[in-house]
Amino acid sequence: MPLRVALLVNPSSGAGRARSLVAPVVERLRAGGAEVEVLVGQDAADTAGLARRAVGGHVDVLAALGGDGLVNLAVQAAVGSDVALAVVPGGTGNDGARMLGLRDPLHAVDVLLGGARRRLDVGRVGDRVFLNVLSSGFDSRVTERANALRWPRGTSRYPLAMLAELGVFRAVPYELEIDGAPLHLRAMLVAVGNGPAYGGGMRVCPGADPADGLLDVTVLTPLPTWRFLRLFPSVYRGAHVGRPEVLTLRARSVRLSAPGMTAYADGEPLGPLPVVVQVVPAALTVLVP
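== Diacylglycerol kinase-related protein ==
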């Protein structure tokens, strides 16, 4: 019986790059013997509905061709089901694809056709789930600025937005609960990672393993601007961990509260703090090399 694939597409991902990938991806899938249905929504809500109906139908794989926002929508639909999630990177950051070990779109198609199934954890906040990182504080403000920029395109928006936000941001008083244990401190940012990275390769929680049943927490405590600028490049390598300004923790449940802060999950706005983040072990089936 042929592999039944629902290909969820966001044509605008990657400044239109995803649109140009649809034909070669579909051709390669069909050449590999798969039955493919292409799904394109009118907006985010319509796209989410298409994904849910596909998972509730008779498909074997829900494939997301786009960026991390589309992958996040697909995760909402596939979590808790027997339908495997496949990611075909076509966006700007592509942190979900990178976490799954996918090099490029055609490699991702080959993995879809012949890869291994693996069960991964997800992070959960209420009825929403995420695959990689939930963030709040300085980085969520940077995400808001980056999303509002029309130029430049691509991952270079994030460093530019960061420099703009550095001029106005001040450390925030956080109240955290780490598996029920209270922790009160001032912080620049707090990131909760089911996976390691966000923002196009920033490995903010470099030790996070999405199959260990735990969440990794990274806290950046207050520091002068010049020290932040020296620290920032090391985040792409995950080399910031171990620095005196960086606190790392692990937990199954994390509560975050801070005045005026918004939580972002997989780069998408989740809502204002406080939030309670919990790990849901082995809740999602994915296709990996």
